[in-house]
Amino acid sequence: MEQLGKRLKKSKNLYILLLPSFIWVIIFAYFPIYGVYMAFVNYQPGVGNGGFLMQLFTSKFVGFSWFHYFFTSSDFYILMRNTLCQSLLSFALSFPAPIILAIALNEVKIGPLKKAVQTASYLPYFISWVIAANIIVTLLSSDGAVNNILIALGLVSEPVIFMQKPNLFWLIIALSNVWKDSGYNSVIYLAAISGINPELYESCTIDGANKLDRIRYIILPALKPTIVVLLILSSSNIINAGFDQQFLLMNQTVMSVADVIDTYNYRYGLVRGMFSYATAIGLFKSVISFILLVTVNKLSKKLSDQGLF
After folding, report:
1. Do 87 and 69 meet the contact criterion of CB atoms below 8 Å apart?
2. CATH, domain range 75-263
3. Which residues lie closer than 8 Å to 1 by C-beta, 6 or more apart?
């Protein structure tokens, strides 16, 4: 305790700067955890006396009934299939994309060109999904740019109605994620590349190595710790296919492949008012994400001696 007091006193200015973030985490991340109890009761707003907390903790306790209801529902298989397939496909395309982009940008030696490409790749990240979805729908419409190009190249004879093709919806979601996030995520890898000792490049050049050798033997090994950490963090989101893009791009024609856990949760939790059911689904997702995070981290430490904890 004495050493802790000395450390606090020595770095008090840093801890004061940290205090607002600490308070924010407590209020918005830890304090609402009591709401998890809603998954184990039959909560109905406005039923009972008192405020929200009184109504919540006096609601009828039903145990794991809501979880059983979800697992045995006819929608469970379809939701898990759509969620996992969309997540895995997006992960397969989105995870390597920023690494490739960062390495490519690092090889560009023309300053203005490099800045222009960086700006163009970063920009989609700062566009809301509402605007991004409208751009995607416009590009893929029957008279959009994509159909015009395909017809001009002679690849199709008539416009393809992309947004009404269930077999294309998962790919559209995955490619839209790549387009929107790759530029911003490449910043992390560019920062790691910039930390490489220039003498390594010089030694590699003296030894007669070309650019591909330099990427293989210098850049990729230097990126390995960053890749492992981001891979572990990304693995915990496999069960989270997202909400915004699915909700904005889906329609009744592709509903069978577009409906994921997040959109289903919104529909039953907020639209239909089944708050306890929605909380149970959310808790299920959180538990699965936690298990994935711990499991992948453990495997990473065994295979590469690197992990988050």
Report:
1. no
2. 1.10.3720.10
3. none
